[in-house]
Amino acid sequence: MARFKLTIEYEGTRYSGWQIQKNARTVQGEIASAVGKALGTKEFELYGAGRTDSGVHALRQVAHLEAASMLAPEILRRKLNDDLPSDINILEISKAPPRFHARHHAVSRSYLYQISRRRTAFGKRFVWWIKEDLDIEAMKAAARLFVGLKDFRSFTADDPDEKSTKVEIEGIEIREHGDLILIRFVGSHFLWKMVRQIVGVLAECGRGKLSLDRARAFLESHSAQPAAWTAPPSGLFLERIYYEGDRKLDRLEPVMTIMTDIPR
Length: 264
Prior knowledge:
Layout: E1 2-10, H1 27-39, E2 44-48, E3 57-67, H2 73-83, E4 88-95, E5 106-116, E6 128-129, H3 136-143, E7 148-151, E8 166-177, E9 180-187, H4 194-207, H5 212-220, H6 225-228, E10 236-243
Parallel strand pairs: 3-10, 5-6
Antiparallel strand pairs: 1-3, 1-4, 2-3, 5-9, 5-10, 7-8, 8-9
Helix pairs in contact: 1-2, 3-4
């Protein structure tokens, strides 16, 4: 058996997330179908590092594939891409150590969220357009509340009785790029809908509708309120999966540019 490391980009708009589901189209399902055709077998293991939700995109998702194959990695990559839809692309395939696990060996992950200050016809599938003016300094101040090891029970749809809701966020970076507000989250792992609910709270702070004290209170005791402010999946990207020895990204860059010389 050979084990491969796959690096994948995809637009999640048309898919019900990464993980294979019955009666739903998923990214993992599409790749598994392509693998089956390329190798002529259903006997393989395909496992992703991150389970992106419905409508969420990925810039560099990582998966491992274990299968009985003598194909060179580049030949396998081309065969898979020939069969995959245009919104899923295998960027790279390399041979991996026999015990490499895409999820368990990851040491941290980064997500990028894009908010647009103006309506955009071309970027609507990749941003959250917020009509109101946003105070970016207020958003930055609120973001600092979430850095460190915190209990994110108020910021997930996961059942706290089934898994721990404590997560360590290494950093949250916010910057403007034209008419975009970019938010990067780096952490050990992330809970279901956690990033989108934090973004929703940051946006409320930016609108001036939520104080820092109220935002802090969501970390001190459980509240269902952040769920009501969940940001849409369109603006969210799984940006990177980091393994031991990987260098973190330095610059925070947008996936696409929204020009600023157009009326909002």
